[in-house]
Amino acid sequence: MYQIGDKVVYPMHGAGVIEAIEERVVLGEKHQYYTMRMPVGDMKVMIPLSNVKEIGLRDIIDSKKADEVLEYLSEYQSEENANWNKRYRENMVKMKTGDIFEVAAVVKMLMCRDRSKGLSTGERKMLSNAKHILISELVLAKDMKHDEIEEIVTQKIFMKEA
After folding, report:
1. Distance CA 55, CA 57 (A)
2. Comparing C-alpha atoms, which of 161, 111, 114, 162 is closest to residue 134?
3. Pairing between strand 43-48 and 7-10?
4. What domains can be seen in the chain, in order of their start residue?
5. Distance CA 67, CA 114 (A)
């Protein structure tokens, strides 16, 4: 069980800090929830304690692992499918794992594709969501500002082009 102040990742939504553990009545039944504040976008999310395992809530990575993710962005060579529909489905599967390296791979592939060929509306939305998830965790892991992390991510991805 997580405690108030713990930094966690909510797959497909991003990272945040547990601010409270509350009990709420929903449809006549009492349920306990984690209230999580997400620093990127300053959003609050309520997560039912009963669904934590199914949701895949996990601790954020540490600073050393965050450095590995940033290094991965500069090394990883994306392999993309030419069919946008298949590519979209493959990327969605990666994002749903909640694994930060998989999310980083999606971000890198879509940013590189956007620069070279452009993205469909669906892929543009996916890129925005994937970047939010990646950056929100890196912000907490590295204790840095959103803009600083976003700049580092962009530099790492396009490092070899310079």
Report:
1. 6
2. 111
3. unpaired
4. 7-59 (2.40.10.170), 63-161 (1.20.58.1290)
5. 25
Per-residue DSSP letters for 85-153? HHHHHHHHHHHHT--HHHHHHHHHHHHHHHHHT---HHHHHHHHHHHHHHHHHHHHHHT--HHHHHHHH
How far apart are the C-alpha atoms of 127 and 75, rounded to whole Å? 19
CA angle 99, 113, 133 (to 5 degrees): 30
Can you give the pLDDT of all 162 residues of the chain as single tens digits?
899 999 999 998 999 999 999 999 989 999 999 999 987 777 899 999 999 999 999 999 999 999 999 999 998 676 667 778 888 999 999 999 999 999 999 999 999 999 888 888 999 999 999 999 999 999 999 999 999 999 999 999 987 554
Give the tokens for residue 49: 């304690």
